[in-house]
Design brief:
The structure is a single chain. The protein is an all-alpha fold. It folds into two domains: 192 residues, Growth Hormone, Chain: A, CATH 1.20.1250.20; 170 residues, Growth Hormone, Chain: A (Up-down Bundle), CATH 1.20.1250.20. The chain is globular and about 65 Å long.
């Protein structure tokens, strides 16, 4: 039997909202920062493209290659996070996170920007994903609740990203100055993490052993035999159809199908994001009174009604109202599903990170499938495929709470 001891695992003694928020603040700030960078980057592409003279193929490479690099590196980081010095990995990832932002602000060519992104993606895996895993370890009985706080922090960051870019650019900073400011902010958050994250156990080896790493991967592959783990992994990927995948096509839908201008379509996306942020905020106190699984069943049923109505109703103002409701009621899907995945693998939060990268390879093909269908049949038809997300949740969610206990081989 393989027993993995997590040196950072510590049950949180503060379960009320206020004390939990204070105790978990460093981890929530890390997630806020990561999504703030994501929001700024998404809005900065026109500026970056113009200054560096990038073509669409180069932009596609910048969006694809770093993700591939991260997918290769992050499973090792996740396993190491369970069997070795997690605090060291988090802080090392934070240092690389800051350096990547500095390199981004200094990039004068496609190659340098690609290098910065290839450093940033795995650095985010160590700094952010392992911070999420550590947050989950602090109180294993409240995975749903702490993931709700984590998701709200990220939603706030991604919503504030574009206004931050626009505001600082108006003051003359430019996109380079914004990334430089983000690097400075990341440095402050890193210092806070260095002070607040508990130290690793003193008996851990200075260098990770091959045997420990191999045992960690054995546990990870064994977890794939757990049907409950597979359930939550699959539902997480399908739920993304109504989350990031919908977000990726939403502006195009309002422009190409609903007939709005580019600016108006961007405004529709902002409506979706703001209502999603409100939903993420209200979910935190809601989960103190309502079981997360009960909420999921209700919200999935509502999304199955709202999404077809959104696609069928011709009036644009009604579409905008419905897209706001869609963003509001899919709040909590990621938080609760990811929380249940952590609960299915108690004491193996790093393994959850590694498994997420494995299934993410498959889930990453979903947007490509929607794009191919849109080229073949038009976006008006292809976007109906997103209904597979709530349908999968409707069929796959358990009818009652069930958390399988993981047994290591």
């Amino acid at each position: 039997m393989i027993e993995l001891t997590n040196p950072l695992q510590k049950r949180c003694d503060f379960c009320d909202l206020r004390s939990a928020s204070v105790t978990n603040l460093p981890f929530l700030l890390i997630e806020f920062l990561d999504e703030l960078v994501f929001g700024v980057t998404g809005a900065a592409w026109p500026f970056i493209q113009t200054e560096l003279g990038l073509n669409y193929t180069q932009i596609g490479i910048l969006l694809t290659v770093p993700g591939i690099v991260s997918t290769i590196v992050e499973p090792f980081l996740g396993v190491l996070g369970d069997v070795w010095k997690r605090r060291l990995l988090i802080l090392g990832g934070g240092i690389c996170f800051v350096l990547a932002l500095l390199l981004t602000s200094l990039s004068v060519s496609f190659v340098l920007l690609l290098f910065a992104f290839c450093l940033f993606y795995p650095a985010s895996g160590a700094f952010v994903s392992l911070s999420q895993a550590t947050l989950m370890d602090r109180d294993p009985s409240r995975h749903d609740h702490n993931m709700a706080r984590w998701t709200f922090a990220g939603s706030l960051g991604v919503v504030l990203g574009p206004p931050l870019l626009v505001g600082l650019s108006a003051l003359g900073f430019g996109w380079r100055g914004v990334f430089l400011a983000l690097a400075f902010l990341a440095g402050i958050v890193l210092l806070l993490a260095w002070r607040k994250i508990p130290r690793d156990a003193s008996n851990l080896p200075k260098i990770p052993s091959f045997t420990g790493l191999l045992d960690g991967f054995r546990v990870t592959f064994y977890a794939l035999r757990n049907k409950n783990v597979l359930r939550w992994l699959a539902l997480l990927e399908f739920s993304d159809l109504m989350l990031d995948v919908l977000l990726g096509f939403l502006a195009l839908y309002f422009h190409d199908v609903a007939g709005l201008t580019e600016t108006q379509a961007a405004g529709a996306v902002f409506v979706w994001l703001v209502f999603g942020l409100l939903g993420d905020f209200l979910l935190i106190p809601l989960l103190e009174k309502v079981d997360g699984l009960t909420y999921l069943h209700l919200s999935v049923a509502l999304e199955l009604l709202l999404f077809p109505a959104f696609l069928l109703i011709p009036q644009v103002w009604l579409k905008l109202a419905l897209v706001g409701l869609l963003g509001f009621f899919n709040s909590g899907w990621y938080a609760i599903l990811k929380g249940r995945l952590y609960s299915a693998l108690p004491g193996q939060s790093g393994t959850v990170m590694a498994l997420g990268n494995v299934t993410g390879l498959v889930g990453g093909l979903l947007p490509l499938g929607i794009g191919l269908a849109a080229d073949a049949f038009g976006l008006r038809v292809a976007i109906w495929l997103l209904l597979a997300g709530p349908l999968a949740l409707l069929l796959g969610l358990p009818r009652r709470n069930s958390t399988a206990i993981n047994h290591s081989p």
